[in-house]
Write a structure and sequence with these properties.
By secondary structure, the chain is mainly β. It contains two helices and 14 strands. The strands form three sheets. The chain has a six-stranded antiparallel beta sheet, with no helix packed on it. Strands 2, 7, 8, 9, 10 and 12 form a six-stranded antiparallel beta sheet that branches. Strands 13-14 form a two-stranded antiparallel ribbon. It starts with a strand and ends in a 16-residue tail after the last helix. About 10% of the residues have low confidence.
């Protein structure tokens, strides 16, 4: 794995357009990553969203992978088949929650699976990662439109499935309690029951 990164404290976002991904081995990949620690450690916890090229085992997919704990076994949180490069990927840390996204234009984002919880310290390394998954050859890819830095949570609430999320429905689940929202729950009858129908944005 080759990893070019910067140190950040607290919440962070890293996004990039990935193109020109050349297959160098089964499960090779290129994308964006956040790793725990003030320095880069090979055994650290991490979150990683990346594209894999067509190979003997896989179609070209986008994959959300993570390691929960030092020296723990890496796990696949989710994947979506048929998402090809050049496309964008984005990884967001909010506390100990990590959310992965992909996009065809860098503007409209699709969340890749559900957010995962990975306990990390205040300081992390966020940046660009590429791996051939093959000790005898190198993978190659192009990275463009790179964005990395801190962010503010989008507090707009929207129903997503049976839950209310911030970030216009794409962020973290927000528990609604009467003590917090007062009579709002009594009078916003148009929201109806929490079901899978979804709701349009409304101000």
């Amino acid at each position: 794995l080759n990893f070019a990164s910067q140190s950040f404290a607290g919440d962070v976002l890293v996004a990039a357009q990935i193109g020109g991904l050349v297959n160098a081995g089964t499960n090779a990949g290129a994308g964006v990553m956040i790793r725990d620690g003030a320095t880069v450690s090979a055994s650290a916890s991490y979150a990683y969203v990346f594209f894999i090229p067509n190979d003997a085992t896989n179609s070209q997919d986008v994959v959300f992978e993570y390691r929960n704990g030092t020296r723990a076994i890496a796990q696949i949180a989710s994947s979506t088949a048929g998402v090809t490069t050049p496309n964008w990927v984005k990884l967001v840390r909010s506390g100990n929650g990590f959310s992965a996204y992909y996009s065809t234009n860098g503007v409209n984002w699709v969340q890749q699976g559900q957010a995962v919880t990975i306990p990390m310290g205040l300081t992390t390394q966020a940046g660009l990662a590429i791996s051939s998954n093959n000790t005898n050859s190198l993978a190659s890819a192009t990275f463009a439109n790179v964005s990395v830095g801190t962010f503010q949570t989008d507090l707009f609430l929207k129903q997503n499935g049976r839950d209310m999320h911030n970030g216009h429905g794409n962020g973290d689940v927000v528990p609604l309690r009467g003590v917090n929202v007062g009579t709002w729950l009594m009078y916003e009858l148009s929201f109806g029951a929490m079901d899978n129908s979804g709701l349009p944005d409304a101000y």
